[in-house]
Amino acid sequence: MSVPQTMRALVAGKVGEPADVLRLESRPVPTPKAGQALIRVTATPVHASDLHVLRGRYGFSPEFPAVGGNMECVGRIEALGPDTEGLKIGERVVCVAIPAVPGPPVAGTWQEYLVADTRRLLPIPDHLSDSDACQLAVNPLTALLLVTRELNAQPGEWLLQTAAGSTVGRLVIQLSRHLGIRTINVVRRRDAVEEIKALGGDEVICTEDEDLLQRVAEIAGPAGVHKAIDCVAGHVGAQVSQALAPGGELVVYGALSTHRQTDPAALTIPLQARSVIYETKAVRGFWLNRWFGTASPADALDALSEVRTLVADDVLTIPLGQPFPLDHFTEAISLAETPARGAKPLFVFDDVRHSDNS
Q1: Max Cα separation, the chain?
Q2: 331 and 231 housed in the same domain
Q3: Whole-structure pTM over 0.85, yes or no?
Q4: Taking a C-beta distance cutoff of 8 angstroms, is the pair 357, 314 a contact?
Q5: Where are the beta strands (DSSP E) in the chain?
Q6: Which of 143, 187, 262, 287 has CA 20 to 30 A from 171's CA?
Q7: Which domain holds residue 117?
Q8: How far is CA 196 from CA 164, 165, 205, 268, 292, in A?
Q9: CA atoms within 13 A on the CB side of 62
Q10: Is residue 293 domain-resident?
Q11: β-strands 322-324, 345-348: how paired?
Q12: Are residues 218 and 114 in the same domain?
């Protein structure tokens, strides 16, 4: 099948609320240069971070007008630039569109075709669903890096995490169970407790009716908890820091407690100075974009390959996404930020394979 001259793309004309600034446009299909491939996109997720980019509230801002989608997608190679080796036309690949990845930036994934540097592409077996493949490079990779690289959690250790019901939280539980790491999982609602236990969480603390500090002390005993990850920030993040044993480490990778906050000065974690100073605790951040910017291309590829294997071997199960055509983007955006939405919205295109792994 020949490559068309034009394609559909979801474009934001300026910074603002995504539903207000996004428009479906017709654009020329780009031509790959040396070292690049033209990808026919089959599926790409709608992450909350993609929406924050359009609002001007994320760690980077594109030049507007900009095609939406700054994270990941799956598709097939339709053409290769001159003298480009290592991949072949028709090969199925994941594209990592994160700006910090080495090579020229990708102009957004919410379009039917895109050009990407081959260093951004990871071959994907056909038996892996598009729903799984298009979500490999953000949430599963974040879970893997937090547990194994950032905290180097070991078998038998306690790992404390907030937002255990989130996609990353669930993946952390699955990975920890596989590695023999014991998890203490913090959730907001009582009705989430049994679900987290069924997923493999060793202990669950519900902040709706339980005291976080007291329960951590009861669970971990005198030895305490030395490693924690937090995606909530605010008061809960501060409590997690306080709950750590002396010398403990807390890695913060999100701020769900301030999800709708537009004032950067309000994005805080009110740490107790005495607890941090006298108990020599470490609190540091993690941002996948910065990790890609500092990791070598070989290290990044190794980590992505490890995630691909964990998902292909059913060690990590990525929740099945809900497909939307591009022209239903307002519905997809609304679902992406709906509490307890249950499924991540995916923009899908022709010949998409969005079934599960069965």
Answers
A1: 67
A2: no
A3: yes
A4: yes
A5: 6-12, 22-28, 36-45, 66-67, 72-80, 92-96, 113-117, 121-123, 158-161, 182-187, 203-206, 227-230, 249-252, 282-285, 322-324, 345-348
A6: 262
A7: 6-135+318-348
A8: 7, 7, 10, 27, 30
A9: 27
A10: no
A11: parallel
A12: no
Residues 226 and 280 in one domain: yes
**Average pLDDT in the 227-247 region?**
95
Please answer whether residues 28 and 6 qualify as being in contact, where contact means their C-beta atoms are separated by less than 8 angstroms.
Answer: yes
Cα–Cα distance for residue pair 95/271, rounded to 1 Å: 38
Write down the H helix ranges in the chain.
Answer: 18-21, 48-55, 130-133, 139-144, 167-179, 193-199, 212-220, 234-243, 273-278, 288-294, 297-312, 329-336
**pLDDT averaged over the chain?**
92
Which DSSP helix (H) or strand (E) runs through 16? none
- Joined together, the tokens standing for residue 309 give 């294997």
Indicate if 122 and 149 belong to the same structural domain: no
Q: Is residue 334 part of a domain?
A: yes
Question: How many residues belong to the chain?
Answer: 358
How many domains is the chain built from?
Answer: 2
Query: 14-32: string of b/e by CB count within 10 Å (b at 16+)?
Result: eeeebeebbeeeeeebbeb
Residue 174 tokens, joined: 């699955």
CATH number of 10's domain: 3.90.180.10
Spatial contact of 269 and 241, defined as CB atoms under 8 Å apart: yes
Residues 124, 172, single domain; the answer is: no
175 vs 49, 91, 134, 164, 168, CA distance in Å? 23, 29, 19, 13, 10
**69 & 111 share domain:** yes
- Tally of CA atoms within 13 A in the half-sphere of 148 that contains its CB: 17
Q: Per-residue confidence at 355, pLDDT binned at 50, 70, 90? A: very low
- Two tokens, residue 207: 């902040």
Contact criterion met (CB below 8 Å) for 113 and 41: yes
Residues 114 and 164 in one domain: no
| Bridge partners (DSSP) listed for residue 252 | 230, 285
Could you tell me if residue 268 is inside a domain? Answer: yes
Q: Residue 72 in contact with residue 138, Cβ under 8 Å?
A: yes
Same domain, 171 and 216: yes
Q: Greater confidence, 337 or 151?
A: 151
Sheet-wide strand order for 282-285: 203-206, 182-187, 158-161, 227-230, 249-252, 282-285
Q: How confident is the model at residue 353 (pLDDT cuts 50, 70, 90)?
A: very low
